[in-house]
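User: Continuing from earlier, I have the next pair ready.

Assistant: Great, send them over.

User: Here they are, in order.

Assistant: Folding the first of the pair now:
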Amino acid sequence: MFKSLQPHRVAIFTAALATLVVLPPIMDPINLPKLWILVFCTSISIFSFLNSKLEVVLEKNRIVFVVCGSFLFSLLLAAFFSDTSLHRTAIGVWGRNNGLLTYVCFLILYLIVSLQNSELPSKFLMKSLVILGLVLGVYGFFQSIGIDPIPWENPNEELLLTLGNSNFGSSILAITALATLMYALNDVKTKQTRFLLLVTFLFEFGIIVAARPIQGIIMVLIGLAVFFGFSLSYSQNRKLRIVSIYWWAIQVALGLCAVLALFGKGPMQSLLAANLGSLKDRYFHWIAAVKMFQENILFGVGLDSFGDNYRLYREIEAIQSRGTAMFGTNNAHNTFLQLGATGGIFLLITYLALVLYTGWRSIIALKRTPDKKLVGGLFTIWLVLQLQSLISIDQIGVAVWSWVVGGCLVGISKFNIETKLKQNHVKIATKDKKREPIIFFTPVLLGVVAITLLPTVVNDLNIRQKVIRLVNSSDSANALENANALYSEALKSPEPALRIVAIEYLLSVGANDLALSLAQSNAKEFPNSFEAWHALAVSYEKLDQKQNAIAARQMSIKLDPLNQEIRKLLENDRQSN
């Protein structure tokens, strides 16, 4: 079945599905289904790759194997020394899912595409981004005018698309808009098609502008500046190459003005100062991540466990900036700092090496490959995604494109390089029966992992259904029955945050004993979770068990020593005890 599918096509289809797939009936309709589809489709990608007739020449790919292998080894090392649960390490925190499985799948897709030493993956990728952008653009238009076929809770009519957040929505539309424009300027044969693509670009950019976040607009503008800079720098016209020097100088000056504006200074401050609050918030996340990294430099605090440790490392200014100590964050909002803080120095260094290697191969591709516009377009998209990763989260539907585009750049950089096939090459997809176990083992392993994720998805779905039944209970007897059902289902969940949601609903209908029992179990199983101890304290207070609430509050303070609001609640419990 998969012999007719080219490996790079399957990998790119996987990225597209990871962007598009959502599952509205469950509690986390965005990230959990994206993780499942990522793992499942990556197993198909591996099978397609191993079953193809591609010859992998080690002489041309030795470095990419070393870099990818080092990153994988660092991931496994961080996972092995992690103090967090196996579920958290593998799947990641609920609502993010940036655990071991996510990065292993990203790495596999990168490797599969990078080993296709031709222009085909790059051209197919650009076409795929154009089509994806058209689909998302149309959906974004209907979403912006309040006609949404998916019943999201979106009262402000933000540009959520299939990413669940307006920043992510505008970001993915930004890279598809850039791909559409670059495809129109490069691979289109007829004027009519070029005109339609340019209209599509303007349509997508218009939707980005209409959305509240400025992140997508900045990504498009930076992308345009970089792409036209590449076009000038690598032009066959000497005068245009000279113009490129001035072009890059102007862009650097504008970039410096933009950075100053975010701090309320310079000529562009009126345009960007409104985003100072968001950047300032992220700045404090970064400070906490640096401190977290310094104190856990070897293996970090545990993959995707930033949220359990953030309150121990945050500055008092972070609380003052938000105006409350009760809200934390579960991500550093910077991929490099996130990996360093949660995975340690080896993971940070190998990830940095992977990024630098991709950038280096991209420059080589620009120099060697005749199709400068294609490579320049891909390099532009990859650079824009790297810049976005400095201030954002590795959201699966967005981040997957960084890895796939990077892999295409590495692959095309080796295109047209004459290399003799020596004895140190590996031939994939032979009919030798001795190789059949190798061909089947890896994809079957990931397929089994994908299947093991299904109970988590089912549990998430069941909790949502039982919450709805509890809220819509017809009478007290029915409410008690539904509360017991929710309690039983929530107890099966390996996600402390999901259990806390159930606790809140149980308390809201007066099922305090059930809420307390669930909260006790949650705090026992996840002792490093501030939210778990806070929920336990609230449950004790509902049952007027002040002495027990005091003990829970004291544990909360140990996990969040700067939280004066919890200290006030603790004092209130002591006074009323």
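And the other member of the pair:
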Amino acid sequence: MKKIIVALAVTILLVSSFPTIVFAVPPDNPAAASDFSSQQIMVKFKPDVSLPEAARIHRQLGGQVKETIADIGVQVVIVPKGQALAKARAYSANAKVAYAEPDYVAQALDTPSDPYLFRQWALTVVKAVEAWDITRGSGDIRVAILDTGIDLDHPDLASKIVSNINFTTSPTVDGICDHGTHVAGIAAACTNNGIGIAGLGYSSSLMNVKVLRDDGLGYYSWIAQGIIWAADNGADVINLSLGSTGASSTLEAAVNYAWSKGVVIVAAAGNDGSTSPFYPAYYTNCIAVAATDGCDMLCSWSNRGDWVDVAAPGSYIYSTVTNNTYKFMSGTSVAAPHVAGLAALVFTVVSDSNGNGRLNDEVRARIETGCDDIGVSGIGSGRINAYEAGAGGTIPPPPPTTGSIAGKVTDAGDGSPIAGATVSDGARTVTTDPSGQYTITGVPQGSYTVTASARGYSTASQVVSVSAGQTATANFALAKLPSPGGIAGKITDSADGSAIAGATVTDGARTALSDTNGQYIISDVPEGTYSVRASAAGYSASSQTASVTAGQTSTVNSALTRLAAPAPEPLWVQSITFGMTGNNLRVTIKVVSASGGVAGAQVAVGLTNGVQNWNFSGTTDTPGLVSFTVNKAPAGTYVASIANVSAAGYIRDTAQGVISATYVLKGGRR
């Protein structure tokens, strides 16, 4: 079977200089408690509220006016320590209050101390600085880099790596090839540490998952294992800067598994300048990333097409490489980790808006709806904008593309709910709950034949039309099917009437076994006529006709005739041979029948040399042989005589074969 090997989606470029870009970003790790004062809020009353009324409300809610911003009519109010947020909500709930809000704390912006930040033009284009004003991510968010490995000693990466694993034949999990280390730096290098570069994912952690050898190649099986391991071990984002033109159900299944676990999967779209599918980026649950240049144009070598989801900077990207150094590289391989780092940031600002227990769908939606339209086709939603993705609410969510089908399944006779009924629109299937209710979600707009079925009921169908964002109703009243009948009886021996246990009884579609009393029953038999056949080992089979009526049990007893036992086959001793092994004398007997050697025959042999007597017994092996040994046999004439030969299913034929044999042993040797 041909194995597909994945190549890196990157072109390495060495560049000595780049235009200087100055960045302003927030300081590291602002404490959550400093976002607003713990005991101070700002309150504005509605214009018709008098000062006495305002004072009464302050007394009721436990606030004390500290000062007033007269020109805009806002009062600064002191509240019990630690209750600022709760009090702001309480004031806001009062009909006399226009608004109330925490007294937020602003911070001066600074510039990270990473000395090569000026070379990271891509961070300016995607508005990373503005995004960092919203969130810097969290060390609890993990970006798994599935690649050639990360340099474990690189000062801009080492402290970010929280786990390592190697699925390749490479002898080390360490990054020997530059590729994985370069990708990791773009996604989440240490920021504001006085060393090297800044990672777009800022505070996010890294998982080093080696799925490509040190020469940059790797099997799909390694990648699939890496995806599943990352998903099972805490990854929030998986970056796949790799791929091939070969489709794989295994690889797609791994991607779908990770998505179902709540992981965002980012993949490079490939560097062939083509619209042809590139895997795994082509798969639905991957964010496929094309590459743009410093002029916000699609790179000529970047893949593009209606399967590509977004674009990100991928030309002359400066990042970490092995041996504690840095350099420029180009390719969709270096575009993808910009999206992976952004996904890590967005995880910290989204909530589960659709109640499915995961955040990856909200993260992906934020990234795609927040893209900038740069007037280039074939790059999906556009080029990523980290600020818009982080800000979220400033961009309207995309209109719904699917609807739902819901309803209730009941008994047509008494109207009672039918739990566990199966309802399908032909592509999606659900079961009803104890109240008979069901909902089929994610149904594309269109017309569908919806079918409901349940055990013991007739099946019903109806056509419904589904509109995007709407729920179509399809209720079903199922008619009960007539109760099935049965076939029962007893299986006995025709000679003595004794019960036959373990007999097989079948009506051609259903089968039952008789119990120790010979009794059997075949249930759920539809109304009709059947040929009932009973059989048992050692008996001839018997067939009878049975007519089954709905709700009734038809009786069919069978008396089976025992088959005659087969005549025993003759056996005899074909040969008695002697042989020496050192000073030991070995006697070998072969027992045969007309069919060949007889295994399991019991053989008794008497042996004498005129001075001593030996009696041996044993069982023949598969070829029909059994051997006996006289240790340190003295010289003499030995006579071996067959005392008895027997085997189950055989009878000894004394008219043929040998009965005894003689052997002369001289001087203790042959």
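Worth noting for the second one:
The CA atoms of residues 149 and 175 lie 4 Å apart. Residues 332-346 form the longest helix (15 residues).
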